[in-house]
Amino acid sequence: MPSSDPVGDMIAMIKNGNSRKMRRIEVRHSVLKEGVAAALKREGYIEDFKVIQDEKRKFIKTMHVYLKYDIDNRQVITDIKRISKPGCRVFRPVSEFGRVLDGLGIQVLSTSKGILSDREARRQKVGGEMICKVW
């Protein structure tokens, strides 16, 4: 059954996998999900992600997201929350971003320059749609 919010499903899978201390989760691939995973990797919240082509079905791809834990096996991601939803999109200019936990967390945005964290968007001075908060 198709989902009305695939990015929200990915965020829920990361949150659930993280709370169960799983090393890897699998999600269906999309360019937006890949961009979110790349932003999380650049900011150090996940270890890695890989896009895998299905051998039997050419047009089906899955993405493996490798979750990150510290030396004491504690989660790096304390929580992750969806901000902009299909029924209520949230757009912000760069001047209205705000800070997540006074700078300890990040916001992931969809901008005209791609999927960026709030830190990267501030450097490039672009606003956009707020996808999620991570801390």
Using the coordinates shown, work out and report the CATH topology.
Answer: Dna Ligase, domain 1
Coarse morphology: globular
Major sheet characteristics: 5 strands, antiparallel
User: Strand-residue fraction?
Assistant: 25-35%
CATH architect. name: 2-Layer Sandwich
What are the low-pLDDT stretches, counting only 5+ consecutive residues below 50? none
| Oligomeric description of these chains | single chain
Overall number of strands: 8
Helix/strand-derived class? alpha+beta
Cα distance, first to last residue? 31 Å
Estimate percent helicity.
Answer: 10-25%
Over the alpha carbons, how many angstroms does the gyration radius reach? 15 Å
The CATH first-level class comes to Alpha Beta
Q: List SSEs in N-to-C order.
A: HEHEEEEEEHE
Tally of individual domains: 1
Mean pLDDT figure: 94
Number of helix segments?
Answer: 3
Topology:
Layout: H1 6-19, E1 24-28, H2 31-42, E2 46-53, E3 61-67, E4 80-82, E5 91-92, E6 106-111, E7 114-117, H3 118-124, E8 128-134
Antiparallel strand pairs: 1-3, 2-3, 4-8, 5-8, 6-7, 6-8
